[in-house]
Amino acid sequence: MKRQSIVSGAMVLGVGMLLVKLLGLLCKIPLSRILGTAGMGYFSASYTLFTAVYGLTVTGLTGAASQCTASLMTQGRYGDCKKLLSGSIKWYSLAGLAGCLLLLGLAPVFCTLIHSPKSQPGLWMIAPAVLFSCLAAALRGHFEGTRNMTPTSLSQVAEAGVKLICSVGLSMVVLWWGKREYARTGQILGQTAASWEEAQAILLPWASAAALLGITLSTLAGTLVLALLLKHQPPVTSFLAQQAPPTLSSRQQIRRLWKLALPITFSSVITSVTSLIDLFTIPSGVRRAAAAAPQLYLSLMQTLEPGQQLSELLYGAYTMALAVFHLVPSFTGLLGKTALPALTESRMGQNPNSVGRQLKLVVGFSALLCLPAGLAMGFASPLMTHILYGVQDGWQVIAQTMALLAPGAVCCGLAVPLYSVLQGLGRADLPVWFLLVGSGVKLAGNLVLIPLPQLGLAGAAIATDVCYALVLGCCFWAVWREKRKLETKKSPTR
């Protein structure tokens, strides 16, 4: 079997990610214009809880399956790879079902806590995506562990394409139906509305829910693509003829899988916690800031739609800027993903020189992506906002927030691949602690800075920058320390 190097694997994933992000922009631009800032606020509120549950049940699974598969292949136990795949599919499916039920159960409580009952339909629509994502994680981890990144790339492109068609299409269908129904009866969903603008405000939560249903359908499509590729192009077929009897029981393999997955899962959950911190602190903090100095927010208040609150407008604007922020680590994370199997093999072979070369590749290419992206966010945010979202209510807030988030995007983009590096070096637990400390700083920053009238929403961006700068510094220190340990272990004692 031909196995991909870090660079070739990153190129495969990079090309796929470029297509994914292009399709994502083609989805996000019309969707933000269809739903508006208020509708995107409902969309983001539902999606934030989804990402927290997703992090709890999905995120660590792909990396754990990849690392276990790479370890087995390094030891020549190719038959165990197949057993590991079947076991991971079974247990990951159970985790996905639990996550789906958890999301459905938390929906009413969550919407009550954030004072946004209109976000609940969206949570109903996106809940099954957790199950499909867990199934996809098992399959992707198997392919990536054999250093075959092509199936992951193809499935992600399929997801993005289906998301574009379904999310935009379904939200348009809901609004089209609502407009026709309002013109015919003067009512919308059983409620009388004085104008189409008022009717649209009633309908927006359901249009947002339709867009989230598109995400569920896209995860199903991605899982089906992976299943088809596994059926027709099994990644370890050429090794099965020479496999030895398995040396590990299924129980041992699954125990090891979860042992690797749990630290990454906790790390992902803590990453999602920063979004939850924003969701819980931005609306209340903005309300306090506006109450303390209403004259500073008068121009924004005049742009509010019927029934819309200032906190909803500003939170929606913040999440739209944050979407650009997350583009940077989504690309650099690919480098860590492709390096993970190679780093695992190098660590098991106690080859510090190979680790050093791979580390230079990961950090070098990450910096090459992060620095230009950060400069673009910092100095071209108005232009980027116009291109991505057009001129709509609160566009200046989106641009200002995007510029303030630029340093954090660079730090986060450099830190994310280092999580995978630490995992490959056998210290997947360290990013958990680093992110926990960073989240504490983020929470304190939000609570202190957002209520200040002169800062308001800018306080959340500043707290994010400080959070990821701290995490990046800790990651660099930990990688340096683990590499030194490996070198010391390899060197003969004098």
UniProtKB/TrEMBL annotation:
The chain crosses the membrane at residues 12-31, 51-73, 94-115, 121-139, 160-178, 206-230, 257-277, 315-340, 361-385, 397-420, 432-452, 458-480. PANTHER family: LIPID II FLIPPASE MURJ (PTHR30250:SF21), PST FAMILY PREDICTED COLANIC ACID TRANSPORTER (PTHR30250). It is a multi-pass membrane protein. The keyword Transmembrane helix applies. Its main location: membrane. Signal peptide: none annotated. The keyword tRNA processing does not apply. GO terms for cellular component: plasma membrane. This is Polysaccharide biosynthesis C-terminal domain-containing protein. It is found in: Cell membrane. Keywords: Cell membrane, Membrane, Transmembrane, Transmembrane helix.
